[in-house]
Amino acid sequence: MVEVILAGASFDNQNRGGQALCWGAIEYISQCYPNEDIIISMLLIGSQSDEKYSLSKEGYANIVLNEIFFTKYDLAKAFIQHRVLSIFGIKPKSKLAILFNDTVNFYNINGGDSFSDIYGWEQFYNYAIPSIIAILCKINLVLLPQTIGPFNNIFVKKLSRWILKKADQIFVRDKTFNFQLDKWKINYKNNTDLSFYMKPQITPDLDIKLGSIGINISGLMYFNRYKRLSDQFNLYPELLLRIIIFLQKQKKDIYLIPHTYNINNPIDDDDLSAINDFYSKLPSTANIYILNKDYNAPQLKYIISKMNIFIGSRMHACFAALFSNINTIGIAYSDKFIGSFNNFGLAGNCIRINNMDKIKLEILFEQIIGIINNEDNSNYLKKNEK
After folding, report:
1. How would DSSP label each residue in 8-24?
2. For the segment 15-25, what is each residue's pLDDT rounded down to a tens digit?
3. Half-sphere exposure of residue 117, counting CA atoms within 13 Å on the CB side?
4. First-to-last CA distance in the chain?
């Protein structure tokens, strides 16, 4: 029996990218221990009741998943018991401290892109604390494939470098920050995003029309008020409108697809809320369909795989298309898009729109239409499948 810890993602995440990382991590860990029974303890910040369940119905008969909710106080207490009490031969009583004693590897996903202060230093620290505890407790720390950096705050940068120096294994999913990792003499390996390993789940209730185009609208960019990124996407709705009108003239069926959303309690950057607001303002809604059910990440991967072309503003929505060999256009707000599209040989399909003005909007719109019209354009996987 192998016991491991998984931190930095959640199955219940309203961001389906976070869900995709969980499913991908489960499959990845499963492949690391192909002939073993595995207990995966998933650390989640909060105070809910812990849960334990088998993943046999999902095809993982050898895996038991524990969801362990913790506070920063719980982690501090577990660290003291694990490191201090053991010196005096006192057996720890904290379930976390006991878990630290039994754990083989401590895997951290850091939300896929939160080993950075792009979303603010507080979010960075919340994701980094489990890694710090793993290092202090001398547990093998594995940073699963993710985006590293950028770091703007000097203290975040110093702490990040310390964690990277102490980690036992580091996997990065794009090469954007590799030059700095090399400069710091960090040992790392390039790997694909974990969502590659996530298996799509058929959604029989939805019949996608042949030749359709999927468009993921990001509430982060649409509402344009997300922390340090606020007011950088003033013309994003206009760009979307231009694309929609063009596609309608081409008589295309268009599916508006949310990827970060909550049906019952929409969040500030909710994609479905953005889609509904955008849809209500369209001069014409001909041939436009909204996905407004509570689909999980594997289901959305299946739905996106049925599109002829996909235009995405959430990174993992784009990954679902790229890993399904779909011609994909990324409307990007961060380096993680650029690095990931580069991995597929599709740098020209990634459109960065931060602080876009009217002139740049026109240029980028023409670039997007050029990609849509180029029927021979295909992604890296198709080019290399032979």
Report:
1. S--TT-SBHHHHHHHHH
2. 999 999 999 99
3. 14
4. 40
